[in-house]
Amino acid sequence: MPRELQIQVAPEVAAQQELLTAHIAKLMQVSPAEIRHVAILKRSIDARQRSVKVNLKVAVYHNEEYTESKLQLPDYKDVSNKPEVIIIGAGPAGLFAALQLIEIGLKPIVLERGKDVQERRRDLKAINRDHIVDEDSNYCYGEGGAGTYSDGKLYTRSKKRGDVDRILELFVAFGASEEILVEAHPHIGTNKLPKIIKAMREKIIEFGGQVLFNTRVTDILVKNNAVEGVVTQNGDTINAKNVILATGHSARDIFELLDRKKIYIEAKPFALGVRAEHPQSLIDSIQYSCDFNSGRGEYLPPAPYAIVKQVGGRGMYSFCMCPGGVIAPCATSPGEVVTNGWSPSKRDQETANSGIVVELKLEDFKPFAKFGALAGMEFQKAIEQQAWHLAGETQRVPAQRMVDFTQSKVSADIPKTSYVPGTTPVELGKVFPGFLTQTLREGFKEFGKSMRGYLTNEAILHAPESRTSSPVRIPRDPVTLEHVQIKGLYPCGEGAGYAGGIISAAIDGEKCALKCADLVRS
């Protein structure tokens, strides 16, 4: 059996197999020639001291052979003639639910309002270049969901929702790099994820499942408080006794449909703020204590950051931080602007960006109380529409230098940022309600105390970062995972309020699929 070790080494040692082997041989007091292989099991960076170190968990093959093994997909069987389950949405929750259904012998019918992962690119180009928002195909809608073209982060803080390793291993089996099994904060990258998503879809179809694109669900058929099927925008009816609702955090039409049909939903607190962009070299110099001009060196990756503060009784924190990344336009309807961020797999862009958001409370939505359970959604929508109006009623976004924002000054000039549609100088206090503006202003000053150099006019704030999570929760039974009111309806993933990213959404999709199987068997 290989010997497992926990070690801490310099970045150049961690990056070079020969140096790493020599280091381990010295620790074990053996000859490097006796070490046949060193497998890195886990890797993380410790930048707390001035000298940055890399933490490694390794398996050392000392005088024993190492055989490389390749992760395999489950033994899927054809489900063409098996009982059918409708899945609304082809994001991570929907795709992993479909794969799980096939694994346990049920036929998934995946209905996706948007286009396939390759076709989506045209509509992303249109929103970036021509400021045209397709309400069914954009950064949020389409095969793979919001995460496909907005980063592909695979990190989750939750360790209680299911088997994280299983999801990561499935990604690898579908073509992701094995590095995601090793890194403390795994990341596939927007340039790599589409090919993996396509492979998943092809596998679903190969084993008898269906995936229908450009198929927006406009009604959910219910009789005697039980699901009977769905109706699409073309007027087609698809019947099924089980429906997994995995539509994502931006499917406002689905929230409105449920509310209109008096299918119980409730407002949910979420977080909202701005997306801040710094030069990556500045973040490197802060996090790695390296010289701003000479940089981090060739053996360290672009530095991320994570920061949390309590400001006036509210949490303010970094969200979806993208080292070496860019800011993207993520509106889902004309007449609004929304920002998000992503990084390519190499994280090799010159800028770093992060959502900087403030936690909201249900009482913040009181001005929209007439909308009932949709009050939070209307609060969110009002800010996005106000930003659109202030920035010139295109996909340009309101922007302000960070120090100027803390001093309530309109920035005289905004340099070109990674946000392709462009920016308009705006005093961001006009975008947000007063309490939110004040929290952000005070919070940035606190951030600057914790990360010296972070509070700078080199940083550009883009508004708003508003789609951090769903503004609605669709309640479900904690045991059966069915809607508390409607039998056979499984609220799932981010849109229902039960996930917060690719991994947790995928896990939730699998859980709902397994519960569908229980109901079918009964």
Note down, in words, how this protein is organized.
- Residues 269-468 form the FAD-dependent protein C-terminal domain.
- GO terms for molecular function: FAD binding.
- It contains 13 helices and 22 strands.
- The model has no long low-confidence stretch (mean pLDDT 94).
- Helix content is 28%, strand content 23%.
- Helix 3 packs parallel to helix 6 (193-206) and helix 3 packs parallel to helix 13.
- The chain has three domains: 3-62, Alpha-Beta Plaits (2-Layer Sandwich), CATH 3.30.70.2700; 84-264 and 472-521, FAD/NAD(P)-binding domain (3-Layer(bba) Sandwich), CATH 3.50.50; 271-465, no CATH class.
- The strands form six sheets. The chain has a seven-stranded mixed beta sheet. A five-stranded parallel beta sheet has the order 6-5-4-10-22.
- By secondary structure, the chain is an alpha+beta fold.
- The longest helix is centred in the C-terminal third of the chain and has 20 residues, at 502-521.
